């Protein structure tokens, strides 16, 4: 099954990726898949993205200029919209500019990395996070399965928020239910989802039967607790 099918994508989407554990890889994989079937795709970030993740063949547009975007689409590739950065990180436009760009009828799909996690598989957002464009139609909360079975302090970005969400000690070994507590907390990622947007949880790095069992246990807990979650997707997308 394609990523688009797993996520239940519609003809036009503004997709915001939040959480931890594979957002950038998911962004580029989804962009390549959609562009490969002729969709006009823009990839960007409202936070920061590692410069090392940008390939030499990626078409980078320094501004939301349609000529640059169309050059990428003509080549069967997604356009990567980046507006700044340094040798380590790159940045994109603010969320309100992404909203404006989504009103352009030539664009089919925008995929936004709207959160940072410092490479950790689990994220408990601070009050100013994530940075989701207001017109997002789909929010994907990403979590790496490698968070389960390890101490919370080793695998969680924003450990203070995670402890507050769960009432657990930093050295607690995480279970699927514990991770669900972080993902579904009222002050977590769900707080920032725009009204009317669909919400999907994507569990990444599922590479073994043990991983799949833990991921399915997590999916059962998530869907039982939260009617806001449209579906839980399991996959092998790595960081």
Written account of the structure:
- By secondary structure, the chain is of the alpha/beta class.
- The protein has a domain at 10-42 and 108-234: Rossmann fold (3-Layer(aba) Sandwich), CATH 3.40.50.
- Helix content is 31%, strand content 23%.
- It has 8 helices and 13 strands.
- The chain has helices at residues 3-7, 23-36, 66-74, 95-102, 152-155, 159-166, 176-184, 209-225, and strands at residues 13-19, 41-45, 48-50, 59-61, 79-81, 84-85, 89-91, 109-113, 122-123, 138-144, 156-157, 198-204, 229-234.
- The chain has an 8-stranded parallel beta sheet with strand order 4-5-2-8-1-10-12-13, with helices on both faces. The chain has a 3-stranded antiparallel beta sheet with strand order 3-7-6, with no helix packed on it. A two-stranded parallel sheet has the order 9-11.
- α7 packs across α8.
- The two termini are 20 Å apart.
- The mean pLDDT is 95.
From the alpha carbons, calculate the radius of gyration and give it in angstroms.
17 Å
CATH architecture of the domain at 10-42 and 108-234: 3-Layer(aba) Sandwich
User: Which descriptor suits the 3D outline?
Assistant: globular
Approximately how much helix is present in the residues? 25-40%
Q: What is the chain-wise order of helices and strands?
A: HEHEEEHEEEHEEEHEHHEHE
- Tally of contiguous helical segments: 8
- Which residue ranges are poorly predicted, with pLDDT under 50 across at least 5 consecutive positions? none
CATH topology of the domain at 10-42 and 108-234: Rossmann fold
Mean of the pLDDT scores?
95
What would CATH call the class of the domain at 10-42 and 108-234?
Alpha Beta
Strand segment count: 13
Strand content: 15-25%
Strand order of the largest sheet: 4-5-2-8-1-10-12-13
Largest sheet geometry = 8 strands, parallel
Tell me the distance between the termini.
Answer: 20 Å
Structural class: alpha/beta
């Amino acid at each position: 099954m394609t990523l688009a099918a797993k996520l239940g994508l519609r003809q036009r989407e503004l997709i915001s990726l939040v959480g931890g554990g594979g957002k950038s890889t998911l962004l580029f994989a989804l962009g390549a898949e959609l562009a490969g079937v002729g969709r006009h795709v823009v990839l960007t970030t409202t936070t920061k993205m590692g410069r090392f993740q940008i390939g030499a063949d990626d078409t980078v547009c320094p501004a939301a200029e349609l000529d640059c975007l169309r050059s990428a689409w003509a080549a069967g590739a997604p356009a990567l919209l980046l507006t700044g950065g340094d040798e380590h990180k790159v940045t994109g436009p603010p969320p309100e500019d992404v909203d404006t760009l989504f009103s352009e009828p030539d664009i089919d799909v925008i995929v936004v990395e709207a959160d940072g996690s410092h490479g950790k598989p689990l994220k408990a957002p601070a009050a100013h996070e994530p940075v989701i464009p207001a017109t997002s139609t789909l929010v994907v909360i990403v979590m790496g399965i490698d968070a389960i079975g390890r101490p919370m302090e080793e695998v969680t970005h924003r450990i203070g928020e995670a402890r507050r969400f769960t009432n657990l000690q930093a050295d607690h070994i995480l279970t699927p239910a514990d991770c669900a507590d972080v993902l579904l907390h009222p002050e977590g990622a769900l707080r920032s989802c725009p009204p009317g947007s669909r919400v999907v949880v994507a569990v990444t790095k599922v590479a073994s039967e043990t991983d799949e069992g833990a991921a399915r246990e997590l999916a059962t807990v998530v869907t039982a607790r939260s009617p806001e979650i449209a579906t839980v997707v399991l996959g092998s997308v790595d960081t």
